[in-house]
Amino acid sequence: MLYSPGETIGGYTIIRRVGQGGMGVVFEARSEDGTRVALKIPHPQLLEDPGTRARYDRELEVSRSLIHPNIQRVVSTGLDEKRDLPFLALEWVEGGLLRDFLRSGLPLSVDESISFGAQLCEALNYCHDLGIVHRDIKPDNILVTKAGKIQLMDFGASLLESAPKITTASLAAALGTPDYMSPEQVEGQRGDVRSDVYSLGAMMFELLTGQPPYHGDNALAVMAQHVQSSPASIRKKNRQVGTPLEEVVFKAMRRDPELRYQSMMELHRDLTNLGSVDASRLGAERARVSSSTNNGASDTTIWSRSVPAWAMVVVVAIAAIAVGTLLIAR
User: Which helix (H) or strand (E) covers residue 62, if one does?
Assistant: First the structure.
């Protein structure tokens, strides 16, 4: 291990390692005044890759500008001069990852799911107002305090409209995470606020059913389904979910961005006022889109434009080629 308990980095003393991912390691540490922080340090070898370095720099750039009760706050940034490694010190959150709530494969309660979804709507709406699209909404990037407060984190894949749009085209970094990525991201587009709406809808599906909306033998198979298929009924998997909530999640997940909620506050409005949701109208809209795109065929490809088989081959091929490629667009 590169760092050991007791070592001091930029005024922070490491207490213990609390997590490790593809991008780096996270330690619990204390500042000189005793404040606990989460110290995030990237893997040295990854910083040699221009795309990975761009992602890390993007996270620093974006995270420092965000001050919201549902976003993990950056305390400071710095450099370990001894090893020439940058670090990010974040506020310590007493709790755990939302992913930990789902490891059993069982759904969360309906009330808890709605609460988490509504809090994320507020955090993401704040980001969107600043011109920031997260693009990697997933349970692994969300902390939950013991009081049930959501803390969104990891802005390494975000798109900042006021800056050059640098995208590392790797499955977990730029395109998003296969279980939750929007169809337009699968197709190679950068996405916009509605891409975050889709990803939150896909995550809400998992909170309410215990399983992500799509399954496949590999990441590319899951990605293809976001473009071509439609998720199963939520109510058939969880009878505690009412029709209005199911239709709200389905609207967030419509494949055509124009047919989704156009903002997080639109989604927030319906999530927090389910008694006012016209579920029959939403269901009829969904059926109408299904009918117009499939001409009465199976409803396995609904809510958006029809996608021919040859197009799906192209989409999956592009996604496969994109892995590990750096795309820089201004």
Answer: helix 50-63
Distances (CA, A) of 195 to 31, 51, 103, 125, 309: 38, 22, 25, 13, 23
Residues of the chain with confidence (pLDDT) below 70: 1, 21-22, 156-176, 290-330
Point out the domain boundary residue: 35, 63, 91: 91
Active site residues: 136
The residue assigned the tokens 């959150």 is: 93
CA dist., res. 26 & res. 96, Å (int): 13
Specify if 3 maps to a domain.
Answer: no
Q: Are residues 154 and 292 in the same domain?
A: yes
Domain boundary among 64, 91, 118: 91
Q: What was the pLDDT predicted at 292?
A: 66
**268 and 219 fall within a common domain:** yes
Q: What pLDDT, on the 0 to 100 scale, is given for residue 52? A: 72
78 C-beta neighbours (distance < 10 Å), count: 15
Q: Is 79 helix (H, G, I), strand (E, B) or coil?
A: strand
User: In terms of C-beta density within 10 A (0-12 exposed, 13-18 middle, 19 or more buried), how is residue 128 classed?
Assistant: buried
Token pair for 163 = 């800056």
> For residue 175, what are its two tokens?
């395109």
- The CA distance from 165 to 301, in Å, is 32
Q: Can you give the pLDDT at residue 230?
A: 87
Domain span holding position 39: 8-91
- Give the C-alpha distances (Å, rounded to integers) separating 45 from 38, 82, 107, 241, 270: 21, 16, 38, 46, 45
* pLDDT value for 330: 31
**Based on the domain organization, do 31 and 121 belong to the same domain?**
no
d(CA 187, CA 166): 17
> What pairs with residue 24 in β-bridges?
42
